[in-house]
Amino acid sequence: MCGRTSLFASAEVVRERFDADPVRPLEPRYNVSPGQEHPVVRNDAPDEIRFPTWGLVPRWSDGSGGSGHINARAETLAEKPSFREAFAERRCLVLADGFYDWKQTPTGKQPYRIEREDREPFAFAGLWEPGTEGAEDPNTGNRNGATFTVVTTEPNAVVERVHHRMPVMLSPGEEQRWLEGGDSDLLDPYPAAEMRAYPVSSAVNDPGNDSPAVIEEVPAEEDVQTGLGDFG
DNA sequence: CCAGACGTTGTT
DNA sequence: GTCTGG
DNA sequence: CCAGACGTTGTT
DNA sequence: GTCTGG
Fold first, then answer.
1. Which residue segment(s) compose the domain that A84 sits in?
2. ipTM, 2 decimals?
């Protein structure tokens, strides 16, 4: 992780939960992929919800090197040239109410949805970069908007069954501290007791399938094939 | 000194 | 296989 | 993260 | 911009 997420909680719930106002209407999203714009709260404007593009492009990059960094390892944030400055100065909360991971099985990849046990929205620890000044480069077509990345860490007991990394989820009490520059003690795996994971349809594989159907639980394909899913 | 990389996950 | 687009 | 393209000359 | 490799 983390390469796919969601945020379909109502605008009202999100506004109350994070005490911030979206700068444009908040639409429900069930399947958000890298390269898309997604709501975040930035440390430089903590009372606003903005929509940078998922995939951090360092300020010194001309953007020609591909589509940006969708994840950043918590273990090396402070050292890596691509993240060091953002870690020191540009924190953000990436708003979500779940994410998806693909478990490698003998028969293929089974997608799982992972969320809080109470299904409430939460925040990933994130870093952001400002866009380049001025208009989009007419020659390269490179985008010029702000970008962000999601910090990853080791998995907890729930996520471990699916994948060997997980995004850093902040508890409500940690959010302000992260924005204000708190350090790596905030970047531990989230408590497994407050999370759950369940298999979902491979419809989620296609980023174009952005509907409530992709959050519905289905029998895991490997369980179907071994008969484990047959009797409830 | 300049040139070239700068990242993750996953895979081998 | 690898890169780009979503 | 996964899905889908990945090429040219020339033609409509 | 800053670090590493040559």
1. 4-231
2. 0.89
Dihedral pair phi/psi, residue A184, rounded to 5°: -70, -5
Between CA A25 and CA A33, with CA A27 as vertex, the angle to 5 degrees is: 125
Domain count, chain A: 1
Phi, psi dihedrals of residue A127, rounded to the nearest 5°: -125, 150
Using the structure, give the distance in angstroms from the CA atom of A134 to the C1' atom of B4, rounded to a whole number.
Answer: 28
Write the CA distances from A220 to A6, A33, A182, A204, integer angstroms.
21, 22, 39, 14
Q: What is the pLDDT of residues A85-144, one digit of tens each?
A: 999 999 999 999 999 999 999 989 999 999 999 999 999 999 999 987 655 555 444 557
Residues 62-81 of A with CB under 7 A from strand E: 81
Q: Is the pTM of this model over 0.90?
A: yes
- The reported pLDDT for the residue numbered A135 is 53
Task: Calculate the average pLDDT of chain A.
Answer: 92
Task: Provide the β-strand partners of residue A149.
Answer: A127
Contact predicate A187/A153, CB 8 Å: yes
Q: Distance from CA of residue A197 to its chain's centroid?
A: 16
The reply to whether A1 Cβ lies less than 7 angstroms from strand B is: yes
CATH of the domain at A190: 3.90.1680.10
